[in-house]
Amino acid sequence: MINLDRRLLLAALSASLLPPKAFAATAASGQTVRLGPPRDFSFAALAARAKKNASQPYSAPQPRASHLIKDIDFDAVQKIRFRADHALWAGGPQPDPVSFFHLNKYSADPVQLHVLEGGKAREILYGPDYFDYGASGLDPKALADLGFSGFRVMDGQNKPTDWLAFQGASYFRASGQDAQYGASARGIAINTAAATAEEFPRFSEFWLDTNGPVISIYALLDGPSITGAYKFDAMKNENGAAIMNVHCDLFFRADISRLGVAPLTSMYWYGENERPKAADWRPEIHDNDGLALWTGKGERIWRPLINPPQVMTNSFADDSPKGFGLIQRDRDFANYQDDGAFYNKRPGIWVEPKGNWGPGAVQLVEIPTEDETHDNIVAYWRPDRAIRAGDTMSLDYRLYWQNNEPAYPKSIAKAVATRLGRGGIPGANPWPRDKHKFVVDFTGGPLMQMKQRYDIKPMVTASRGSIDNAYVIKVVGTDRWRALFDLQVDGNMPVDLRMYLKLGDKTLSETWLYQYFPSS
Questions:
Q1: Judging by DSSP bridges, how do beta strands 300-304 and 511-516 pair with one another?
Q2: Which whole number is the average pLDDT over 440-457?
Q3: Residue 229 DSSP symbol
Q4: Residues 103, 107, 110, 113: what is their CA dihedral angle, to the nearest 10 degrees?
Q5: 426 and 395 belong to one structural domain
Q6: What is the CATH number of the domain that holds 261?
Q7: How far apart are CA 191 and CA 59, in angstroms?
Q8: Could you say which of 377, 402, 427 is where a domain stops?
Q9: Are residues 395 and 421 in the same domain?
Q10: Separation CA 336–CA 269 (nearest Å)
Q11: For the domain that residue 492 is a member of, what is the CATH number?
């Protein structure tokens, strides 16, 4: 299962900074970060330490002041404010200073933080004076030995907003081109939606370094079944997207039945494809509306997300994938009507493998949910190899937090909306109760240059049932082309659908996939 309380904490974090005027005033007073003595550091030494840890039994983190931490809930977190003059690199040399997160009931395990100076590591020494407890009612003296729960990278000097954050287990996330947080990434996923309980390894230590606009983050991963050494090189590009190069060396303490590499975690309650689930007044509620795939053979695939009646894990087998990600393609405010959460501004996350990842599968896990507080979507790469105790693995990949998947070809159209309804002819009575209509809109690529025509064919297949009344038209007054077809099927078992558009012998679109539950 997924850590369902995580979203409540993330919502509270946006209020845990001083207001802009106070931020500017305190930052001007100079940096007051306290540091320990310098110690040698290198990534090779970090990897050697992770490898040594894997040969020893796992030791769970010891709770600190748990009787106090359990009461630092959603409301209390909002009242605890970080003091900006205690930010790392406040006033330079890194253009984006780093502030720290307080422990709380949702993220109760402390992490060690270090800064690299001249190739030497110096621990950032915790103290309750890093925080203004204000109206929280907490006594700073009782919190003297807590430690930090994570950190965030601010969006420039003297600004109250951030663009990158690490907190809780191995979770991290970045804002995209519209400066809005959404889905998260993780260092690793273990046994997600498997028969055994999911394991959440944690980043227990971090080392922070700066090189102009790039911030380098080294991290030590530790968990019952795995250890690892990570390096993240992160920056914002000229379009405001967050780009991160990731390298990891993994060491396995135990056999793992389901390993998830480069995992992404998101929320999907309902979209235009699942209107019966729209219990809320807002038309759509989701961080991302689809899984995008770029296979090793070059095929582009779009799989709209669903809120299934039971936990579903779908595998998309591949060899040396070029990329995959959870994307928010619908960016029209009118389709959300939410001026608080701004789902239309949520970034997608794209994973670009570096090197040959070999055979395996992108796995998509969809978990039923009845509200927007639950992270219920996971996507990751599962290598096609057994993971045994004593094994090692090294991987490189790049993450993009931005509106669209990068390097999308101009030669093919993409699916931008999926809708479902009654089969047959609209208005006909009686209507065929065993038929279900699917309407998929495409745009871009060669379709942009075409006027209305009727010889474009939707190439549709279904895992069961039959397809009829399939055709394609251009939507009047738009640059969209609409593919429609009816599925006739009996029973409640799911149906896997596949479609792409074709004109003669030319493929015009990416491949649209869908998993349909007739009873849902």
A1: parallel
A2: 95
A3: E
A4: -90
A5: no
A6: 2.70.98.10
A7: 20
A8: 402
A9: no
A10: 12
A11: 2.60.40.10
332 lies in some domain? yes
Same domain assignment for residues 386 and 505: no
* Region of 320 on the Ramachandran plot (φ > 0 left; ψ -120 to 50 alpha; else beta): left
In 3D, which of 298, 391, 327 has the Cα closest to residue 51? 391
Is 1 a domain residue?
Answer: no
Checking if the pLDDT of 310 tops 80, the result is yes
Amino acid at 344: N
Boundaries of domain holding 302: 6-402
Assign 3-class secondary structure to 402-447.
ECCCCCCCCCCEEEEEEEEEECCCCCCCCCCCCEEEEEEEEECHHH
Is 319 found in the same domain as 264?
yes
Mean pLDDT within 342-350: 97
How far is Cα 77 from Cα 63, in angstroms, rounded to an integer?
A: 18
pLDDT at 427: 75
Region 316-345: what's the mean pLDDT? 97
Residue 146, in any domain of the structure: yes
pLDDT for the residue 7: 52
Q: Which residues have CB under 8 Å from 237's CB, separation 6+? A: 243
pLDDT digits (tens, 9 = 90+) for 198-239: 999 999 999 999 988 999 999 999 999 999 999 999 999 999
Does residue 16 surpass a pLDDT of 50? no
For residues 341 and 196, membership in a common domain is answered with yes
- pLDDT confidence of 430, banded at 50, 70, 90? confident
Tell me the whole-structure pTM to 2 decimals: 0.93
Structure tokens at 170: 């191995």
